[in-house]
Design goal:
The complex is a heterodimer of chains A (318) and B (221). Chain A is of the alpha+beta class and 318 residues long. Chain A has helices at 4-20, 24-36, 40-59, 85-103, 164-180, 199-211, 222-236, 312-317; strands spanning 69-77, 130-135, 141-148, 155-159, 189-196, 251-259, 266-273, 279-284, 290-293. In chain A, β8 (279-284) and β9 (290-293) form a beta hairpin. In chain A, α1 runs parallel beside α4 (85-103) and α2 runs antiparallel to α3. In chain B, the strands form 2 sheets. Chain B has a 5-stranded mixed beta barrel. A two-stranded antiparallel ribbon of chain B has the order 4-5. In chain B, β2, α2 and β3 (60-62) form a beta-alpha-beta unit. Classes of the chains: A alpha+beta (318), B alpha/beta (221). The interface between A and B is large, with 68 and 62 residues.
Chain lengths: 318, 221
Amino acid sequence: MIPIDLIQKTAEALMDKAAIEIPEDYLDGLKKAAKTEDGDLSSFVLKAMLDNYEAAKEDRRAMCGDTGVPRWFVKLGNDARVEGGMCALETALRRATAISTNSVPLRPNRVHPLWRTDHNNNVGIGAPEIEYGFEPEGDWIDLITVHKGGLFGTDYRMLFPSDGIQGIKRFYLDSLMAFGKRGLACQPAIIGIGLGGSKDICMTLGKRASVLRTVGSRNSDPRIAEMEEEFKELGNSIGMGAMGFVGKNMVIDCNIEVGYCHTGGMPMSVHAFCLSSRRAVARVYPDGRVEHRTDPDWFTPYQRRETVEWEPIREAAE
Amino acid sequence: MKPREIRLSTTPTPEAIAELRLGDIVYLDGLMYTAREGVYMRALEDKANIPMELPSESAANFHCSPAARINADGSFDMGAVTATASFRFAKWLPEWMEKTGAKLIIGKGGMSSKDYKSYFVPNGAVYLSTVGYGTGALLGRGVENVEAVHWNEELGLAQAMWVIRCNKMGPFIVASDLNGDCLFERENAKIAQNIERVYEGTKPAVLKRYGESDDRSDEVI
């Protein structure tokens, strides 16, 4: 049984880390980009961002004033049990979100869509979002918080099989062009592309591709992995850099996730995880151990399974 | 070429504003206030009295909601500070400038050259963009003191009018000048020369959408 106090304490620590510490994989990616950048203004911007991450860590203050909309991804090993059950878990995550909004401090971004009611704690109807995944083995629970910013950089389109790869490229470029100008997407970003699923799942896939995969990771399907490389290059060949200034770094990495869709369609979504790619992860065990990391490791073979049954043991023996 | 760096008062002289060139890097000293849709609506539509002497105390309007808290003893803690996209406020800005004498509009992404020419230039005002976006921690370091928070009860922390004393707060980029020229539009025009090459071979979607543009030199704002 995993103690509920430990879950809440860990969740508070994660809120703090996500807001303040840029994940190492994104930082390495941005440092590489800064080395290749030769646009005067975009070089200045990238250097300022690198200074900013340092200042955030030194001062223990949030890296960006728009601290995004905190949300949670929870993954449970099949044998995990939480003290008080799943409703207690949700309450602990909501409580941690509210407490940390005040203690870090974060910006209380969450308001009612119509009445603009602000509880000043980032908690409200449906907020923070809590989504779940499962793994066949383990008694641990993974807590992942993502504070994605953003009103810009995300779009959806129902494409069709006849649109093909060239149609996918067109929509990808359109999204980067539209939201890259003036740097509305806060690029260079981790671009996530969702392909397939139904409309809502297509959005979810793209979002998860941008926020739950690290810079440098590749899809397990080698042909999709090739597309990821190609799309990264394509995005960086537009000639647009940080803030929409002339430059060569728009995409720190491009991650693609797919799901089976209706036979007649090919829905596509594009998401941009910005210069403040805030995510933090911890695995909590029943014996009280807590292991922090920055890779959500969400897209395991189990998450991408295509079969009816899941028989990992037999597969391993082959 | 490295951009020029300039220190500027938040109650700048007309000469100091005239000095500014597109792409200059600016650091601010003096009082600055945040005002976005909440403040604009309350001051301009509900006709509430603005709780500051403007522009004598400050001519710098920041489109910002800080990551901050008000402590139980009434003191303030401000963490990171970054801007929000300004184009959404074009509806209120002409009247706001006239009423408050704002000379520096500070935010994210700038406005169009049409906005600059029609009401920035006549008011002797320019636009400064935050960098990144956003250098929230660096800007936070430039906050010497939070002097006041107005309208918190009416508008909430995110929309309230925060009054900040800046000490070499920056960096900001000069994104408009007294000709009404727009830095972002200048950069867009340069990038537009590549569009044809980048799009080569791609094809328009089978299913059209209302309001769709095929002109990639267009902006979405």
